[in-house]
Write a structure and sequence with these properties.
This is Neural cell adhesion molecule 1-like isoform X1. Residues 316-416 form the Fibronectin type-III domain. The chain is mainly beta. It has 2 helices and 36 strands. The chain has helices spanning 2-20, 414-441; strands at residues 24-26, 30-34, 39-46, 53-56, 59-60, 68-72, 75-81, 89-95, 98-107, 115-116, 122-123, 127-129, 134-138, 143-146, 148-150, 156-161, 172-175, 178-181, 191-197, 204-219, 227-232, 237-247, 251-256, 259-260, 265-270, 273-281, 289-297, 300-310, 320-325, 330-334, 351-358, 365-370, 377-379, 387-396, 399-400, 407-410. Strands 13, 16, 19, 20, 22, 25 and 26 form a 7-stranded mixed β-sheet that branches. Strand 29 (320-325) and strand 30 form a beta hairpin. The radius of gyration is 35 Å and the shape is elongated. The relative contact order is 0.08.
């Protein structure tokens, strides 16, 4: 038992000794800076791996303070950007009971043509050479984001994402003149930050680099078939939509019966999505058949076939009714159309298109809806105390029906809507009291 206690005491003493040898190191004890200096940082680390905190003349510092606290592999730093004379003072790094303090003096209009190293040697300022803010790479190849730093005294270069996130994936490697990305994909297209730090002065510079990964066209949806079925009826219109991702942007071409379609389509781009829509007026049955969409850029070509087949025009809705109204909305109910045996199940209604306009306007606005089990189709953001003309049509895979006759509905005045809301509130309150009273009796 005596030996066991002695070993425990020795172990405890060893742990205390190990803890006592842990020390805090600061990159700088005193700094003199100019208000012309754009940015710099001071780094603190504990050689025992303990976490450290920073405080300044105005209290504890953090990720959103000025200066802000940054954490990196070389330590925990305070980052100054656009310093002012009022930033002068003591900044303390703490770990447990141990502290180290750095004193900062900020002056105006110093000569910043060079920087003094600790040995008094004049060092040239940090600059980025051969570092374009916009760089490209080809998907599934190795790409180097170039960021070459000149000047200073052996500056430290680090990389991060624009949002401050750390780059930890093993596919990324920091090399002498940049950041190597192995097997780059389009998901790596983003903005990166190359940061250079002058260890002797704490001065830092940042360069934003936008990486654009080029790739051949690919369809927007991961699950797709090379041939897609489409339907249309004689006298109606067919809209064939081809959507792709491509970098650089793709050019579209439509083919019908092996001939290039010269007109009837339009191309748009929304973000990274490119879209080409071919609109076909079905004047007769000769328009049925296969239409080919081709999307092409310098890295490849993608094809998709649309098999346009005969469809059936849906019947119009039976009616439109008003389910409810407010000062800025009309809640509509739409009667299901009559479906006969002549209409196959594949041509069943999928939704409705509602057109509406103030009684005094000439132009219709429209909104498409999927079928609602609750039979509720609200029109929102309307004008108060206004008469609206409303009509509806049925939608199926082949197109759209004729429209119903026009119905007229009116939104409430602001005063009526407010009164209705107050009345409803009182009714709910009254029922709550009744339920509470009978619940207490029960």
């Amino acid at each position: 038992m005596k030996y066991e206690i002695s070993w425990i005491a020795i172990l405890f003493a060893s742990l205390l000794a190990a803890k006592s040898t842990s020390a805090i190191y600061l990159s700088h004890a005193n700094l003199i800076k100019s208000t012309d200096d754009s940015s710099f940082l001071v780094t603190c680390r504990d050689d025992g791996g303990r976490p450290v905190t920073w405080s300044g003349p105005r209290g504890l510092l953090g990720a959103k303070s000025h200066p802000r606290v940054d954490m990196a592999s070389y330590g925990t730093s305070i980052f100054f950007q656009h310093v002012a004379v009022k930033d002068s003072g003591n900044y303390t790094c703490s770990s447990g009971s141990e502290q180290k303090t750095m004193h900062l003096t900020v002056k105006g209009n110093l000569d910043t043509s060079g920087t003094q190293s600790p040995k008094g040697q004049l060092k040239t300022p940090l600059t980025f050479m051969d570092t374009s803010p916009n760089q490209t790479g080809i998907e599934f190849t190795d790409v180097t984001l170039r960021c070459e730093v000149k000047g200073g005294d052996k500056p430290i270069v680090t990389w991060s994402y624009e949002n401050g996130g750390k780059i930890s994936d093993p596919k990324f490697t920091i090399i002498g003149d940049g950041l190597l990305i192995k097997n780059v994909t389009r998901n790596d297209s983003r903005t990166y930050i190359c940061k250079a730090m002058q260890t002797s002065t704490g001065d830092i510079m940042e360069q934003k680099i936008q990486l654009k990964v080029e790739h051949k066209p690919s369809f927007r949806h991961k699950i797709w078939v090379k041939t897609e079925e489409a339907w249309a009826f004689i006298g109606g219109e067919a809209n064939l939509t081809c959507e792709v991702y491509a970098e650089p942007p793709a050019t579209f071409q439509w083919l019908w019966k092996k001939q290039t379609v010269q007109e009837g389509f339009h191309n748009t781009q929304e973000g990274h999505i490119q879209k080409s829509v071919l609109q076909i007026f079905m004047k007769d049955s000769s328009r049925y058949g296969n239409y080919v969409c081709m999307a092409k850029n310098k890295l490849g070509t993608l094809e998709k076939i649309f098999s346009l087949q005969p469809g059936v025009q849906p019947p119009p809705p039976e009616y439109i009714e008003l389910r409810g109204e407010n000062s800025d909305l009309l809640d509509l109910g739409i009667g299901e159309p009559k479906i006969t045996d002549k209409i196959p199940s594949a041509m069943s209604p999928t939704g409705y298109r509602v057109q509406y306009r103030p009684h005094s306007d000439d132009y219709w606005k429209e909104k498409d809806y999927e079928r609602s089990e609750a039979n509720s189709y609200p029109l929102l953001n309307l004008k108060h105390d206004t008469d609206y003309e409303v009509r509806a049509a049925t939608i199926n895979k082949a197109g759209i029906s004729d429209y119903t006759n026009i119905s007229n509905f009116r939104t409430l005045t602001l005063q009526t809507a407010a009164a209705s809301t107050t009345f409803l509130t009182h009714v709910i309150a009254a029922f709550s009291i009744i339920f509470f009273f009978f619940g207490a009796l029960w």
